[in-house]
Design goal:
elongated, two-stranded antiparallel sheet
Amino acid sequence: PGLSSVFLDSEIARIQKACGLDLPSRQDVLMRRLKIFQHQLMAVSGSVSIFVPCRDMAGKRMAPAASLSLIARCLGEAEDPEKLIVDADLLEDERALPRAPECKSVPMPALLVPPVLTLGQDLMTLRKRSDGITPAAQSPSRLDNLLVSPLAWLLNELNVQDKSWAPEGLDALIIGSLFHHVAEHLFRPAHPLPDDDMIAARVPELLDEGIRQIAPFLQSGTWLVERQRMARDFTSAAQTWRATLHTLGAEIIANEVPLQGEALGMACRGNANSILRLPDGSLIIVDHKTSGAKTRRQRMKSGWDLQVGLYRTLIGDMLKQATRKGETEGMAPEIKSLFADLQSAGKGRKGTQLGVAYHTTRDHTLLLHGLSPSALSPTTEVIEADIGAAAIARLQDEIAALRRGELHLPDAGQLKTMGDGGVVHYALEASPLAATFILPAPEEEA
């Protein structure tokens, strides 16, 4: 055993004597390993072969390990322990070891996996809330996993995930959280829109504040270039967003709205980044994406989009619950205002509708669905397609199967169809195990 990086053995003994804390010393570790080794030797019925590496990675011959003397002493041959070592390449007598056949050119056998795994219980109820009884709510990211790979979704539900360590880094999630922080405090409800000069002055301050709260490691000098780049990008995105809001005549009525309700027959949750009111009373649920519009546009037009459509459903369910209870107790003032607008819409106030949109900050685009405002900015695109038709249909099938205890494994053809529709296979990137169990497309089975 190696030395402890913290305590000497004498210090470990003093700690145990003073407070009874049993830290393993080098002697304890050695005795435990010897006991295990003794049990292993006692399990041998005929003979035992212990393989010893004789060369290092560069091909240089290695000296025998210190444990060789211990093994020789166990066998009663301690005078010259190195005589116990026999070069396996030179064995020609009855002690010769069986050799495995050369297999590099032999193709791996096909993995015979059924397309449906029957697991015998309702898989939608595995993850529970804090009460230990109620099934936990699903989020858009979890449902995206289910859309791509039910196996990846199941592993996530069971918290069976890769736990490998990696140094802190600036990824898309952190950049997105930092922009949300900046946008939330720059464009506030019931406040006039900031002008371009104010945006340029405040973005660096808000970014520094967000870094302190969300990613403190970015404060070091190593990340100076990245901080400066984010400040420039966020300033440009915020100024263009301000121009878009001004052209639409939009008023911000709520930011970072927590949503909780029922969708697709189960509890779901989410967080709407911003909710806007247009001059005609229409409302828009906006989700900021620190990416370009190309893939998101493709996904919406092909019917594979999920997130903002789910938010619209959750707001509708929250409205029904509030109306049924006859109260909005505990809601923040801006959320009460939102519900007042929605309730007025439900009672037939002319012109009030609920649209959804993605604001992609990389190319300053607003992808809008469900509304056709009279005044459109040059960066606003109206998507007329049913943005979630294909995604909802597939999710409904998968959820019904999971409730029966059936886990469908995706095939390459299904993944290609979704990929062509703009769905990014993040679920497979996050789970190497899920990526292993992808069935061939039907036409490729032969």
